[in-house]
Design goal:
It is a single chain. By secondary structure, the chain is mainly alpha-helical. Helix content is about 45%, strand content about 10%. The protein has a two-stranded antiparallel ribbon. Strands 3-4 form a two-stranded antiparallel ribbon. Helix 9 packs across helix 10.
Length: about 260
């Protein structure tokens, strides 16, 4: 508990919070906060020297632009308190409506209120938890089962189902589909999926480019003489060929364009 308070105090001081305000937020005496910040050596009740190292004031790493900043969260809180809808807030910030909706849902406090400082702290803590070691790395038995099932070239949804059957009642060993996907593509987990056998694709014939079976030196209908199309002269014939199923049969037809009767 003491170490957590010291880390919390150091984080507040690094963010530019004053010493008295950081002490009030953490819940410690100002004299204790001064010792934590500047470092002191005092004697305890047993007469032993106790050294308090100073807080390391390192500049915080700037978050990625895809994460909401404290200023954006302050704008969200002000507009939300004023009754502006999710789409209106998103348009004001230049973000998507789903980002604002998720922010209001996930980073609210226990009373359902959205406070910028609380939302910033919850988001930072959630990102720090994402950097922890995966369960597949910590649990060798879970890692072995996942590698065996994934080695059978099954889908990640099937792997998640198999884990529930293999470890009934052990919810800490039940992984979702997204966790399994991330483990496959994470080089630290040593979970690989076998390469799928490539199917030989059948070459698709493009209509109009097929040359087999076509007649050569034939006269197209659009190129026939005008007298043939007008059906005014006798002696003009029109031939056609009808092919059966699988080209195993054929019927030839001859029709005279016009007759003398």
């Amino acid at each position: 508990m003491l170490v957590e308070k010291q880390e919390w105090f150091a984080r507040l001081i690094t963010q530019g919070v004053s010493n008295s305000e950081a002490c009030r937020i953490v819940g410690i005496n100002r004299r204790t906060g001064t010792r934590w910040r500047y470092g002191r050596t005092i004697l305890n009740t047993a007469g032993e020297a106790v050294h308090y190292p100073p807080v390391r004031l390192t500049a915080p790493k700037a978050p990625h632009p895809r994460y909401l900043s404290l200023a954006e969260r302050t704008t969200i809180a002000d507009l939300h308190r004023a009754g502006v809808g999710v789409r209106g807030i998103a348009e004001e910030l230049g973000r998507t409506a789903s980002t604002v909706s998720r922010e209001l849902r996930r980073n609210a406090d226990g009373r359902g209120r959205y406070l910028p400082a609380t939302a910033q702290r919850l988001s930072s803590e959630r990102r720090s938890r994402e950097l922890r070691t995966r369960r597949l790395v910590r649990d060798e038995q879970l890692h072995g089962v996942v590698c065996r099932v994934v080695g059978q070239a099954v889908e990640s949804r099937t792997v998640a189902h198999e884990l529930r059957l293999h470890f009934p009642g052990q919810t800490e060993r039940h992984l979702c589909t997204e966790s399994i996907y991330q483990a496959i593509y994470d080089p630290r987990t040593d979970v690989t999926r076998p390469a799928k056998r490539r199917r030989r694709r059948r070459r698709r014939r493009v209509q109009g480019l097929e040359r087999r079976g076509r007649l050569t030196n034939m006269t197209m209908i659009a190129d026939r003489p005008v007298e043939v199309g007008d059906r005014v002269q006798v002696g003009h014939w029109e031939g056609d060929c009808i092919m059966g199923v699988g080209n195993r049969s054929a019927i030839g037809t001859l029709v005279e364009r016009t007759t003398a009767s």
